[in-house]
Design a protein that fits this description.
alpha+beta; Glutaredoxin; three-stranded antiparallel beta sheet; antioxidant activity
């Protein structure tokens, strides 16, 4: 399983629209997802060790961001044919087991991941209230294992977006497992 890093933030890039089903089949759009001060769109999946390593801290941070007016939505774009842990039924199990505080959406066609140019899990896109990209960096310096004294880079960046509408100029790219694309 090779790790891959996405490009860093293209400030001001507008969030592409989406309308995807959540784990219960209800459709969720970009507009539905936006918070009063911003939106964190993250591409994650169930099987990725990078996602698993941060999930408890990610849940805590997005809960704190919600109190600041920043909503969060997670999108799973992997082809589950080779990764059954990423199937819709497994997404629902994870959502319920962890009481995820954000919508967990299925991008079955992978068109949303392509529109966002998502490359890995996790891949974070932090938008201000005007749907302008302000953060595309890492969660923190941890990798597949939790770093003991990690700086809350994603949280601090999105807190800044909530307060000022602008993200930090210095950002370090995320790292994770490549998105599992369907055969063409």
């Amino acid at each position: 399983m090779a790790s891959i890093s996405p490009p860093v933030c293209d400030f001001g890039w507008k969030a592409p629209e989406f309308n995807l089903p959540d784990v219960y089949g209800s459709m969720v759009s970009l507009a539905d997802s936006m918070g009063p001060r911003g939106l964190l769109v993250m591409f994650i999946c169930n099987h990725c060790p990078y996602v698993k390593a941060i999930l408890p801290r990610l849940i805590a941070d997005v809960t704190a961001l919600k109190a600041l007016g920043v909503n969060t939505v997670a999108i799973m774009s992997n082809d589950p044919s080779d990764y059954p842990e990423d199937s819709p039924s497994e997404m629902k199990k994870l959502f319920e087991a962890l009481a995820l505080p954000f919508a967990y959406l299925l991008d079955e066609t992978q068109q949303v991941a392509k529109a966002y140019d998502a490359v890995c899990t996790p891949d974070f896109f932090g938008f201000n209230k005007d749907f302008a990209l302000q953060y595309r960096g890492r969660f923190d310096e941890s990798r597949k294992e939790t770093a003991p004294e990690s700086t809350r880079e994603l949280f601090k960046a999105m807190q800044q977006v909530a307060e000022t509408g602008a993200g930090p100029r210095e950002q370090i790219a995320s790292i994770g497992c490549s998105i599992k694309w369907k055969d063409a």
